[in-house]
Amino acid sequence: MPQNRDAYTRYKLIDMRLRKRPYPRLEELMKFVSANLDRQVSKRTMQLDLQEMRYNQSLNFNAPIAFSKKEHTYRYTDENYSIHNLPVSADELHGLDFAISILDQFKHLPAIKEFEEAIHKIASTVKLNKEARGESDHIQLDKPFIIKGIEFVEPILKAISERKVLKFSYQRHGSDTVSQNLLEPYLIRESKNFWYVIGNGISKKDHKILTFALDRILDLQLTNQTFSDDKIDRKNFYKNVLGVTVGGGAPEKVLLSFSPQQGNYIKTIPLHLSQTIIKDTKTELRISLELVINTELKMQLLSYGDKVKVLKPQKLAEELKESATRIVRLYEE
């Protein structure tokens, strides 16, 4: 790919001019490109651009540009050539297919929805290219459910940017009570396809840092009330947290022992950035983590079943042992 968008714009203009008669001299090519860019392009830049289009392997144009010593003009030796007609390689096609699949996961986000038509056009082109190659769909991702509350992302981002207090009604899971909240919003966090807003709850007497799930917000509006400084370090707020629950606890050293098979997955996809391998043998993978002990961590560890054992801290080990005992009792009844 070109080093910058401005260079690629020049390549397109050069391509356009070289395909038209009468073929241009270097000075005429400079005038054409400069006029379309509305600024002067130097002779040196033009010469380098022609060279790049001919020989730069990363561009992969391989443009058949010829110079006529007699007429001092430039042209394509292949009249049907254009940089817009370049074939897409199989690797590039698969890369586009994968990127489109990822974007499709988040198509309900306002920022993505704005480019929905363009994404659809690219997806259609990729599909036609794959069909022409005789390829079927090689990449399939789970289709997520429609994310409730995603429509609040855009106004919340606006409130964060403009430092405006949010006012909204909120109903917790399993509760019939609806609370009214005023919040200084600091950041938005996504975890396992759920979205949350974190901020200073100024409707509470003690002004706690609170987390609200967007799917539980019933209505939301930006107030005219503003706030000054954030009460948290946004960059490091979730540094030692798995999921979204921070609580009041400090990070602790968590020592885990995995079975070799499960350990292979943990090495490939680490649980957390703080993960450090302590021991790696044929019988055990032992890792260390620096994490706040929260609900998300406990649920994650329980999901591994008998493939993991908590070595430290002892309190976490006891809690998981009690949970495992309750699970066994469910099947004994």
Secondary structure: helix percent: 25-40%
> Radius of gyration over alpha carbons?
29 Å
Record field, number of beta strands: 11
SS-derived structural category: alpha+beta
Q: Tell me what the CATH architecture of the largest domain is.
A: Orthogonal Bundle
Brief sketch in words of this structure:
With 333 residues, the chain is α+β, with helices and mostly antiparallel strands. The chain is 37% helix and 23% strand. It contains 10 helices and 11 strands.
Molecular structure report:
- The protein has 333 residues and is an alpha+beta fold.
- α1 packs across α2 (26-37).
- The protein has 10 helices and 11 strands.
- The strands form 3 sheets. The chain has a 5-stranded antiparallel sheet with strand order 6-5-4-3-7, with helices on one face. A 4-stranded antiparallel sheet has the order 9-10-8-11. The protein has a two-stranded antiparallel ribbon with strand order 1-2.
- The chain folds into 4 domains: 5-85, Arc Repressor Mutant, subunit A; 90-132, no CATH class; 150-226, Roll (SH3 type barrels), CATH 2.30.30; 252-332, Alpha-Beta Plaits, CATH 3.30.70.
